[in-house]
Design goal:
Blueprint (H helix, E strand, L loop, with lengths): L3 H22 L4 H14 L10 H18 L1 H6 L4 H26 L9 H14 L6 H23 L2 E4 L2 E4 L14 H25 L3 H10 L17 E5 L9 E5 L1 H12 L1
Antiparallel strand pairs: 1-2, 3-4
Helix pairs in contact: 1-2, 1-7, 2-7, 3-5, 6-7, 6-8
């Protein structure tokens, strides 16, 4: 298989190219492009979380634990959490990923299992998408695509290194086909991987549907999240002979303004003419 340095070098070069494409062809700012490129470089290490050796798994976990809280900052700011609470939230999240997630991977995964697979790449994409930003935006898709690109580069390199060139021509090693795959050798790992993929997919779809909902639903969601001063409530205008325009929020403090409708003004004009 390809070594750790090969994986990180290739994914970093791809990340640099991805950042350039994002800036030149999609007119994204350099900050967004740099984050997408960094996530691509990080994605090249992610499949090695199931590695039995110390360096790849340790370095990948350290990097993931440090980056994940930072990616959440914009989402936490969107729902109204201040900087002090973000710091308090980020510290335990770092410890959870660094030690809790590491223990889970060491106990329940095997090297070249389902974490070296196309569904695992899709899971990495969806997790990055949910962590980054808010709303359905090009920048958000760009960052998640960077993670997926780096992840796929790792799988592709492992397959390339599974082909041995010799005097008699290319020969396939026993590890060929264990990286770019859709199912692993363990039924339990397959079930868990696809269950996580379906759950994350439904969560992403639901969030996207909320963001694309009509403006009234988005106002209600904003009010539910606590942004009561950001968007005024919709006006209530009954269809009567004299329109009642309600101003304000509370019923006890709701003044009314009576304004003649078109039909009332027409009747008054006819009476003046007579």
């Amino acid at each position: 298989m390809a070594g750790f340095q090969t994986h990180i070098t290739v994914s970093s070069v791809l990340g640099f190219g991805l950042a350039w494409v994002g800036h030149e062809h999609y007119q994204l700012d350099w900050g967004t492009c740099a984050v997408g490129g960094t996530l691509c470089s990080m994605g090249g290490m992610m499949p090695d979380l199931d590695s039995d050796s110390g360096i790849p798994a340790r370095e990948t976990l350290n990097f993931a634990a440090a980056v994940a809280p930072m990616l959440l900052f914009k989402r936490l700011h969107y729902i109204g959490i201040d900087v002090e609470h973000m710091i308090l939230f980020g510290a335990p999240l770092y410890l959870l990923i660094r030690f809790g997630l590491g223990a889970i991977f060491r106990k329940f995964t095997i090297h070249r299992g389902m974490f070296h697979s196309i569904p695992a790449m899709a899971i990495a994409y969806l997790i990055t998408y949910l962590l980054c930003d808010e709303g359905v935006t090009t920048a958000r898709v760009f960052k998640a695509s960077g993670m997926a690109l780096g992840f796929f580069s790792h799988l592709l390199l492992d397959e390339i290194w599974s082909v041995k060139l010799g005097p008699g021509g290319p020969r396939l090693k026993s590890s060929f086909g264990t990286a770019i795959k859709f199912f692993g050798p363990k039924p339990g790992g397959n079930s868990f991987c696809y269950a996580a993929l379906i759950l994350l997919g439904l969560t992403t779809f639901q969030e996207s549907a909320i963001e694309n909902a009509p403006i009234t639903a988005r106002i209600q969601r904003s009010l539910h999240l606590g942004h009561r001063n950001s968007v005024p409530p919709p006006l209530s205008i009954p269809s009567t002979d004299s329109e009642l325009i309600h101003l304000g929020e509370g019923p006890a403090l709701t003044p009314t303004v009576r304004r003649p409708t078109y039909q009332a003004r027409l009747r008054r004009f006819d009476a003046d003419q007579r």
